[in-house]
Predict the 3D structure of the following.
Amino acid sequence: MNPHVPDSAAPGRVLVVDDEPNMLALFQKVLGKEGYEVVAVSSGEEAIGKLEAEWFDLLISDLKMPGLSGSELLKKARSVSPTLPCILLTAYGTIDSAVSAMKGGAFDYLTKPINNDEILLTVKRALDLHRLTHEVERLREKVGAESASGGIIGRSKPIRDLFRLIGRVAESHTTILIYGESGTGKELIARAIHQQSPRRDRPFVAIDCGALPETLLESELFGHVRGAFTGAVGNKKGLFEEADGGTLLLDEIGDTTTVFQSKLLRVLQEGEIRPVGGNKTIKVDVRVIAATNKDIKKDVEKKSFREDLYYRLAVVPIVIPPLRHRREDIPLLADHFIRKYCERNRLEPKRITPKTMKLLVEFSWPGNVRELENVIERAVLMSPGPEISAEALFMEAPVETPDDALPDVIRTATESVEREKIAEAIRKAGGNRSRTAKLLGISRATLYNKLKRYNLVE
């Protein structure tokens, strides 16, 4: 049992503290018959040690004890476990002791001699409240985490540091440049910033700058007027206007030309756009977040990226850690993707074996979270039973997969899934490579390299 998380399926773990052995025996007998797990100790000091090391659903303590009294124990217990309910026992039954116990945070008190039915009733009420409180807190944390993190999953130090940085910059209106390897979730970070910002009720718009040629990119972002070019049969509103009052993510900004960069810089400086073919400017209020998997500083040195635009975008740089730098998040991510694809495909819940999980944690994942998700998606579909093993994860693997074979196995499985997804995107885009790259969320250059790699070039 996890010492920090209650098991809602179990009747409850109860810590009973009393310096009288017969009282400890009474609670062990009465509560034990009802299926409760009772841990009995004879002093407040011993009780604190138990509370610090283990999870309990309820504390029952005598009020008058040598050494640490019941009221003192209650104060210390609440510092260790703030939501833990406590029932105090008193031989005196005076109004003063009852009021003092309740003011100290006790759930209830019982007077000695104690009636067995009263014990069971009071314990049940205390545990029902504890479970309800825990469930409410759990749901509140889940909703808060999902809305705050924008779906980013993790509890490692790099991710916690990232969450804190997002919280600090979200309230501002400044531009942000997100760095991250492919597959790390740059758009998720941008959405998390938007969701925590004052612009959360306005549009969030994203575009992959590397998936479009320069002229089409300008039209998409700034809009165009009728007759601006062949095929411009009417006026078109650009994404800057669509995102007015909200946030615009310019993904793969490092793949743009210096000509386009100069036009973007003017928009950022002046807060207005000029539609392609138009002679009037339009004021826009948009927070711009740019993202890249390139080292733009090197591009600035090579003069392939404008230095003034770089400093304009990188007012606040955010670096997303690759998955290999936050390995403790891999079990969380794997579990999330297993549940996601089981639900999506209407399959019975599945789980991954500890041996396979160890292999996943030890792998370097050059494709980051996206690569892990691809492998898990395949595993869910290919696993015949409730347990996902290495053989089910990577069907190309032999029945007994040696640890050192995992990188090759993962690479083969991932490439197979990636090839299928690219082929599917090509079909959806009608063979148009720009649209295919946009659907896949990669640059045209990256798409072309993958087409050659998987022999998909016509």
In short: The first strand starts at residue 13 and ends at 17. The chain has a mean pLDDT of 83.
